[in-house]
Amino acid sequence: MGNKGSKLHLETAQKTGVCTIANLKLEEIPPEIFKITKLRTLDASNNRLARWPSGIERMGMMKMLKISNNRLTEINVSMLPKLETLLASNNVLTKIPDLSQCKNLKTLDLSNNHIKRLSSCIYALPQLDALNLEKNKISEIDEAGIENLKCIEINLNQNQIGKLPSGLKKCARLKVLRVEENCLQSIPTDILKESNISVISADGNIFTEKELQGQAARAYKSSLDVYTCCYRSSQSKYISLVINKSFQWQILAQDEPSNSAVFRIGLRTKGCNGMAYTLEHADIESKKKFEETVTEDGVTVIIDMKAQMTLLGTEMDYSSNKLEEGFIFSNPNIKGTCGCGESFNI
Fold it and tell me: Which NCBIfam families is this protein grouped with (predicted)?
């Protein structure tokens, strides 16, 4: 950076605690930046950094570090205990860095590197929500202690994984598992049956999509909790529905004509938050172009095209109490609802 540009960045960083030096073709981070000890965010992505800057260890207040799209072979963030977000995709890392001191880390993106092993060093991170290790060379996953992993979502797409550890079933917070384009021959039955995972994306493995659906159905056949249905839509996006058995039994128990086990889920504008799901009986012949269907043990769901992209991870249930009864949708992607609960936004 020139003197004028450097001075401008330093003045801004000192006032805001945020420093952006991305897209400047830098081969090293200017040493004067390390003098800002109260820096909270540093964005040095899209440069030409090949060596880890040792001065970062003095930035004990750092909460967000962006160093994607560089040439780094190693990372050392052991002296950044307040770090919450580490984005280091598109480098040449061969292993997961030591994160044992990063107890506040919530988001970790090490995608598109050369990492060969998912090591146990991240299992004890108490705040970790999202882990992205997509497009690496991972063929081994440490099994010891994996039940302590706190992630809500793990992305392991496009690696070389041949087997998933059954300990994943004990990860209490894990809801989304992405393992597309690996070398898996199956998903362990105990993961399907005993885990809290509601979304499994597993296209492009050795088994077929139909085999996975059959395996999931068999795994849940004796369970009183949920069925999980995973399939690829015409838009090449995964949609996953969790259908509670109380929902299924209520549908099958209704004294309706033969089409009572076929229903359509739609989306319409409603209320102060903008959207609401609709549920109505339908004939299977009424399925339109671009609509999707899922059939499980006598219940067929037709999903309207507009509703498809909002149903990821949604749980469909039937609730009955002293005040009300009816079908309900529990969608983890909803960001807000109206006071009466009839509409939502995503």
Answer: iron-sulfur cluster assembly accessory protein
Q: Which domains occur in the chain, in start order? A: 3-221 (3.80.10.10), 246-345 (2.60.300.12)
Tokens of 254: 């209704």
DSSP 19-58: EE-TTS--SS--GGGGG-TT--EEE--SS---S--GGGGG
Q: What is the CA radius of gyration of the chain?
A: 24
How many CA atoms lie less than 13 Å away from 318 in the CB half-sphere? 11
DSSP run (H or E) holding 199: strand 199-201
Check: CB of residue 211 under 8 Å from CB of residue 185. no
SS3 content of the chain, % helix, strand, coil (to 5): 20, 25, 55
Distances (CA, A) of 224 to 16, 193, 241, 300: 53, 10, 16, 19
Residue pLDDT, tens place only, 61-101: 999 999 999 999 999 998 899 999 999 999 999 999 999 89
Look at residue 346 and tell me whether its pLDDT is greater than 70: no
Residues 6+ apart with CB under 8 A from 169: 188, 190, 191, 193, 194, 195
Please tell me the pTM assigned to this model.
Answer: 0.65
